[in-house]
Specification:
- The chain has 276 residues and is α/β, with parallel strands linked by helices.
- Helix content is 47%, strand content 12%.
- It is built from 9 helices and 7 strands.
- It has a 7-stranded mixed sheet with strand order 3-2-1-4-5-7-6, sandwiched between helices.
- It is globular, with a radius of gyration of 18 Å.
- It binds zinc ion (ZN).
- Zinc ion (ZN) binds next to loops.
Amino acid sequence: MASSTPLRLLLIVAHPDDAEARSGGLMTIYRRAGHVVKWISVTNGDAGHHEISGPELAGIRRGESVNAAAVIGADFEIWDHHDGQLEPTLERRWEVIRAIRSFQPDLVLTHRTCDYHPDHRAVAQLVQDASFSVTVPAIVPDTPALSKDPVVAYMADLFTRPARLRPDICFPVDDLRDTIIELFSCHASQAFEWLPFNRGNLDTVPAGEEARKTWMLEHFMPRLYGNVANAYRDELISRYGEEIGSGVNFAEVYEISEYAAPLDLEKRRKLFWFLP
Ligand SMILES: [Zn+2]
């Protein structure tokens, strides 16, 4: 059951397609229940291509984000910082503090500080550094402080050093896969150009909308949401039973940050009302 006051979900990520790559299911669940969803890409994505870069690429990625946001009725911001050059500086921290205070989220999703991409790590560090500071009035006094931290959760990754992501929240997204594919397909410069080029399978990308949807199901979904389901198979089985858990193809998993508000039982029922 959705609560009567809409919940506010804020994703703070490094690149314009990161939210859709890991949290397409949760964003869709929130929007379908009438809750407010917004993502902030801290960089403009201007390095994420093999043939285009700079302002031209940033403009393309902004347009792709407009389309993706429209799929589920979400809001978004893309900040004008260069892709691949993000550092967790004091200025960036202040921007993140202002953004969290202004949006007043119930739940924030972000990256972990152990991740392959330096921009992801920088964003994770910025959110971690903002987590307590959002409640301190003397820090960034131009934007009123929050009385309480929001809950912060890390989006799934499969890195194991220094620690594997703890699956505090774990659920299948098989029934949402078409929407997730639609969301990520909006980022054509990534889904059908840069990422397959970078992975050496650009020659497998077909032309035509329907063929590309099938390609996404076979290449993109297993690589992100499928790998998560496989990595956390035991967890899915323990929560959903052997029959359902072992049949899940695609999943989302989140770890609750210990640096922000804890996910007590009341908050768990409120923020993840759809879980068993
Ligand atoms: Zn990214």
